[in-house]
Amino acid sequence: MSSLEIDDLLSRVNRPGRYCAGEFNVTRKDWRQARLRLALAFPDLYEIGMSHQGLQILYHLVNARDQWLAERVYAPDIDLEQALREAGLPLFSLESRRPLQEFDVVGITLPYELCYTNILTILDLAGLPLRAADRDSGQPLVIGGGPCAFHPEPVADFFDAILLGDGEEALPEMLAVIQRGKEENLERGRILEELAATPGVYVPAFFAPRYDTAGNFLGTEPLRPDLPPVRRRVLADLERVDHTASPLVPATRVVHDRLGVEIARGCTRGCRFCQAGIIYRPVREREPAAVLREILDKIEQTGFEEVALLSLSSGDYGCINELLGQLMDALERRRVSVSLPSMRVGSLTPEMMEQIRRVRKTGFTLAPEAGSDRLRRVINKGITEEDLLAASRSAFELGWKLIKLYFMFGLPTETDDDLEAMVELAHKVLRAGPAGRCQVTVSAATFVPKPHTPFEREPQLSVDQGFARIDFLKERLRHKKFKLKWHDPRQSYLEGVFCRGDRRLADLVEQAWRDGARLDAWSDHFSLPRWQAVAAGLNLDLDRYLRRRDAAEPLPWDHLDVGVKREFLAAEYDRALTEEYTPDCRVHGCSKCGLCDFKTIRPVVYPSPAESVRGPASDQESAGRPEVGIGYRLIYARRDEARFLGHLEVMQVFFRALRRAGWPQAFSRGFNPSPRVSFGPALPLGTESLEEFLWMELTKPLADLEGARAELNRQLPAGLEVISLEPGGRRQPNRLFCAYRIRVPVEIDPRAPADLLAAEEFVMTVQRKGAQRTLDIRPAIADCTLHAPDELELVLVQEAGRPTVKPLEVVAALCSLAPGQLAAARVVKQWSRPHI
Ligand code: SF4
Fold it and tell me: Are 455 and 273 in contact (CB under 8 A)?
C-alpha cells in the first residue's frame, strides 16, 4: 500500500485531515528499530478519540521506551471504510500508514458500549478474523482496556486479553510478556497463559459462561483451577509516572480541543448510580506543584488557549483554590482560560467561579441528577435544592447568562412527583437569575443501571417509558427561556443491554455489524429496529437483559473483581432505600468499601494549606482594553497533507503555532478574546497553494524578522511554511485575482480555454451549503490558458459579496470530468493579487 494510494483515497473522503497524523508533537519512530509495535486503536471517529485522555497517556508512555513503538488508528468514517473496501486496501496507522496486520499488538480502548460495532470495523479492515479463537500466531494480539472492560462479555470473544484498571504500569508489563513471547517464538496460547498470570489481565478464552437448559445465565467460570482471579489494577500514586511528554495538538477539529491535565483520579462522593465512582477508587490527587509546573510547560509546548483540569470532580481537588489562583495569575495575560469540566455543586465556591471568569466564561453546568431532594438522597447525591439554587444565584450574579442542568429519569424509586420536581427546579433556577436575561438548558437521559454499582440489579426503563418522560418534560418546559435536550431512549436501551449482557451478545454485535450497523453512538447512524431484527433472528430477548435481577441471581460481570466488596454494594443499595447518606471517605473516614489496604493503596489527598486565593492582578484590568497593535503581513505556502485541512483548521493551527513561537499577539477585547489575525480567502479543501497570506497585529515589534519566521516554521506542521514576513501590509482587499494550476487525468480539448473566454456566459450548477444553485460563473473568470495537454492555468476573480467559484468546479464543467477523475485532479494555487 503506497502513500500515493492513500493520498488518492483521502482526496475522496470527507475531512481527510483526520487520517493524516498532522498533529504537532506527533511521534514518528523508526519502524525497523522497534522490537515491539503497538497500534493503539480508538473505536470511534478521530474527533472523539483525540479528546480521550487515556489513549494519549498510553501513546506517550509506550513511545517513551526506546525499544517500543506506538502508533494510532481511529475508526474510519463510513466514506473511508467504503473507499478502502472498494480499493481492496487495509486500514492503516496514522503515523507510518502501515497496515494494522504488521503490528505485534492492536490495543483497542473500550470507552462506551455503543462503539462495539466499530471494533469489528477496525478488525475486519485490518484483515484480522473477528473472533480471537480464529486468529493464529502470525497475527497481532488484540487487547482491550477502558471502562467497558469491567463488563466486557458482549465483546469478550473478539479480544485475546482485556486489562481491568489503570494501564500505566500494567500495559508495559503486558507488552513485556508479548515481546518476550515474540522473541522466543512462543505459541499464541503460551503468551496468553503468561498474560493471564499478569495481575489485572482477563483472558476470555480461559473462562466459560454457563447457562441452564432454559437459557438462564448461571455464571462465568475459569476453565482451569489454577487461574488467578482477575482483579483490577490500581496505580497507587499518579506521580509515579512521567507526565512530561508533549501533548498532541490536533490540526483538525476535535470535540475537546484543549490541553487536558489530569489533577486527580477517582471520586468517593459515593453517588449510587455512578460506575466511575467505583471503578476508579480511591481518590488519588496529584501534587499541586507538579500539576502547576506541568500545565505551564505544556501550554508552552502546545499553544493551546484553554486548559481543562480533569478529574471526576475537579472542584473536590484539595488545593483547587490555590491551584486556580496561581494558574490564573500565570495564564491570564496569555489569554489562556481554565475550565473545570466536572464540577459538583457543593465544591464550587464563588471564589472559584470568580477565578474562572477572569479570562473567559466557560459553560456553567450543574448536575442535580434527580428532581427532588428525596430522590437525591436515594442516589446519595449529597446536595439539596437550596445548594443548587445558591450556586445558580452566584453564577448569574457573576455574569453567566445560561445554566445547564443535567437530570436522569428512571432512577430507582422514581415517582411522578420526582418528575414534577425536575420541572419545578428548572423554573426556580430560571427565577434565580435576572428576569428576562437568562436561560436554562435541561438535559435529560434514561438511567442505565451500571455493573459494579449499588444499583446494578435495578431494572431499566423501556424505550416507551423513556419517551413518555421526555414528552412530559417537553410539555412542561415550553417557555422560550428553556431549552430541552435529551439522550435518545433507544440508544440508552441498547447501552443498557450491553452493560448487562453476557457472551451470547457477541453474535448480536457481529450480525448487526454484518447487517450494516456502524457508529451507533451517532444518532444519524443508529437504528434500533436493525438491532431488534437481528436479535429476533438470533432468538435473543433483549428486554430480558433490562429486567430486575434478584439478589441471588449470578451476574455476567461477577467473575471480574473491581476491588470494592459485593457486601458494600448490597449495603449501599439498602441505604438507598432508606435514604441514608454515605459520606465521602476522603474527608469523613473510611466507609469500608474494601478497596484500600492502607499499605500500598489508600486515598491520596493534598489538603488546602489555606483559603488564600490570589486577587486579580492588574492584568485583569487590561483584559477589557483593546490592545494597541503593530501590523505584520505574512505569506505562507500550504502543500502536501496540509491541503486536507479546512480553513478554520488552518487558522487554529496558526494561532497555536504563534503562541508556541512566543510572538506577542494582540487580542480582541471582551469575554472571549481572540488573536487579532485576519486570513486571506478560504482555499477549497484539497487545493495546495504556493502563496496564502494573513495579516496580524502584535503588541510589540519583532526585533529579528528572519529569526521569528524560522521559529514560527519550526512550530508549524509539515506542509505549512511561512515564506515571507514583513511589517505593515494591509488587510485583504475587496477584490482579488487568484491563479490556479490544475492538472487533470484526461487530455483537455485545446479549444476549451479560448471558447470559455469568448463566451458571454457560462452557467453551471454547483452545491452550496447542501443545496444546488445555478450560477453564471463567466464574470468570475479573468483568464484561462493551456500549459500542457493535461494542465491549464485558471485566473479567478474573488470579490466580496459575490458567490465564490471553485477552480475544480470550472475545470470539471470545462472538461466534462467524472467524479472519479475529479478526485485525481491536482490543484495548486500560484498567486493572488489585487490586479493583473
Ligand atoms: S476503602 Fe475506605 S478509604 Fe478506600 S476507597 Fe473505600 S471507603 Fe474510601
Answer: yes
Q: Is residue 545 classed as helix, strand or coil in its secondary structure? A: helix
Q: What is the pLDDT of residues 390-438, one digit of tens each?
A: 889 988 888 888 899 999 999 999 999 999 999 999 999 999 988 878 8
Residue, of 762 and 804, whose pLDDT is higher: 762
Element containing residue 74 per DSSP (H, E): strand 68-74
DSSP state of 316: G
- What is the chain's length? 836
Q: Is 571 in the pocket of ligand 1 (CB under 6 A)?
A: no
Instruction: For residue 381, give Cα distances in angstroms to 268, 385, 421, 425, 469.
Output: 11, 11, 16, 16, 21
Q: Which three cell numbers stand for residue 622?
A: 487590561
Nearest CA to ligand 1 atom 4: 596
Residue 473: is it exposed, middle or buried by C-beta count within 10 angstroms (0-12/13-18/19+)? Answer: buried
Minimum CA distance residue for ligand 1 atom 2: 590
- Residue matched to cell numbers 459538583: 344
Collapsed DSSP state (helix, strand, coil) of residue 539: coil
Regarding the beta carbon of 72 and ligand 1, being less than 6 Å apart is answered no
DSSP lists the bridge partners of residue 737 as 797, 833
Is there a cis peptide before residue 282, judged by omega within 30 degrees of 0? yes
- Ligand 1 and 593: CB distance under 6 A: yes
DSSP secondary structure code for residue 798 in this structure: E
- Residue whose CA lies nearest to ligand 1 atom number 5: 282
Query: Which stretches does DSSP call E strand in 512-670?
Result: 560-561, 630-638
The alpha carbon torsion through 804, 807, 810, 812 (nearest 10 deg) reads -130
Ligand 1 pocket check for 245: Cβ under 6 Å: no
Ligand 1 atom at shortest distance from the alpha carbon of 585: 8
236 CA distance to ligand 1 middle (Å): 13
C-alpha cell of 236?
497507587
Name the region of 616 (left: φ>0; alpha: ψ -120 to 50; beta: rest): beta
CB 741 within 8 A of CB 749: no
Query: Would you report the helix, strand and coil content of the chain in percent, each value rounded to 5?
Result: 35, 20, 45
d(CA 283, ligand 1 centre) in Å: 9
d(CA 832, ligand 1 centre) in Å:
66
Atom of ligand 1 nearest to the CA of 601: 4
Backbone φ, ψ for residue 537 (5° rounding): -60, -30
Nearest to 349 by CA among 606, 611, 610: 611
Q: How confident is the model at residue 621 (pLDDT cuts 50, 70, 90)?
A: very low
Tally Cβ neighbours within 10 Å of residue 770: 5
The phi and psi torsions of 660 (rounded to 5 degrees) equal -65, -35
> Who contacts 24 (Cβ-Cβ below 8 Å, separation ≥6)?
248, 249, 251, 302, 303, 653, 656, 657, 660, 715, 717
Which amino acid is residue 632, in one-letter code?
Y
pTM score: 0.83
With beta carbons less than 8 A apart as the criterion, state whether 549 and 558 touch: no
End-to-end CA distance of the chain: 44
Mutate-to-test residue for ligand 1 from 593, 597, 601, highest number of ligand atoms within 8 A of CB:
593
Ligand 1 lined by 281 (C-beta under 6 Å): yes
Lowest-confidence pick of 41-55, 324-338, 353-367: 353-367
- Angle of helix 463-476 relative to helix 489-499, nearest 10 degrees, comes to 140
Q: What pLDDT does residue 356 have?
A: 65
Please list, in sequence order, all residues whose beta carbon lies within 8 angstroms of the beta carbon of residue 545, skipping any fewer than 6 positions away.
496, 497, 500, 501
Pairing of strands 439-446, 402-409: parallel
Tell me how far CA of residue 640 lies from CA of 25, 313, 458, 745, 825, in angstroms: 18, 43, 55, 19, 14
Q: What are phi and psi of 263, to 5 degrees?
A: -100, -20
